[in-house]
Design goal:
Length: about 290
């Protein structure tokens, strides 16, 4: 059994409910159900109790595990999955974290916004007032995150020869941000870490997002989305690689114009001031992102 061909990061997700009650929910991406079954990951307990692979992030209430599922009968390479497990106090009104993020992935795809591949999600209410939930995603190879480029491959964006590549990337990310906000949603952690790219030398590289745990869909706050999202994005772009001209180019593409209107210039000023506040806050709390060191 081969893992599904998932080089399409844009197609809507067909979801199957394998369990759906107030106490237990299990949702799977229909393309991945046969693979999960053959891999022994077809029910809530099997996924929740999985101890294989390595823990890549852990804090109270959260564990993220990287798992290489062994090559199956006709599989040429192992399939890399990430299992993100949450434990939350019961009684909260909000949806469980695992189901919420899976729903966000599906919603982005329905709106024509590319994402990493969601595989499954589940929720179970336990004794003692605890809600357990998880999200399973496939690794995003061959896409690369923008953070990887600026941290470990800065030469790929430096100099006159690489100028077109950098502009193409900025243009593609700006258009994605505009489409995201136009579709009525805003990733609240819109930064270089979570921006994925494919086809770096293409005129229009593919852009996709991952880590959709925090998404705002309240249209009453939409006027603030570009201020907060673009300020955070700009803050995570190192000054050694991205200058004021790059930021202004990004914003004019985001606005879909060649020349900013008075309102656009006001917005851009607000973004720069917000970026400065983020910098001060991060410095005060010693939270400056590693890509600015």
């Amino acid at each position: 059994m081969r893992a599904p061909e998932m080089n399409d990061y844009l197609a809507p997700i067909a979801v199957q409910e394998l369990a759906s009650s107030g106490e237990l929910v299990l949702l799977v991406n229909a393309l991945w159900r046969p693979f999960l079954e053959e891999s022994g990951l077809s029910d809530f307990d099997a996924i929740w109790q999985c101890q294989l692979g390595e823990v890549v992030k852990e804090r109270p209430g959260l564990e993220i595990r990287r798992l290489e599922v062994a090559a199956l009968a006709r599989e040429t390479e192992p399939v890399i999955l990430y299992i993100k497990k949450h434990e939350q106090p019961a009684g909260r009104r909000q949806e469980s974290e695992g189901l919420k993020e899976f729903s966000n992935y599906c919603a982005f795809r329905r709106r024509g916004l590319a994402t990493a591949v969601p595989v499954a999600a589940g929720m179970a209410r336990q004794g003692g007032g605890v809600v357990r939930s998880f999200l399973v995603t496939r690794d995003f190879a061959p896409l690369v995150d923008l953070e990887e480029l600026v941290l470990n491959r800065p030469e790929s964006l430096k100099g006159v020869e690489k100028g077109h590549r950098k502009k193409n990337i900025l243009r593609a990310v700006a258009r994605y941000a505009r489409a995201m906000h136009g579709a009525g949603c805003n990733q609240k952690d819109f930064n270089a870490t979570h921006v994925l790219l494919q086809g770096l030398d293409d005129p229009e590289p593919l852009v996709a997002l991952f880590d959709l745990q925090r998404v705002d869909t309240n249209r009453l706050r939409a006027f603030r989305w570009p201020i907060k999202a673009l300020a955070e994005f700009f803050f995570t772009l190192p000054a050694a690689l991205f200058d004021e001209e790059d930021r202004l180019f990004f914003f004019t593409v985001y606005k879909g114009t060649q020349k900013l209107s008075p309102y656009g210039r006001l917005q851009y000023g607000c973004i720069l001031r917000k970026m400065a506040r983020i910098a001060r806050h991060s410095k005060k709390r010693n939270l400056a992102p590693k890509m600015r060191e």
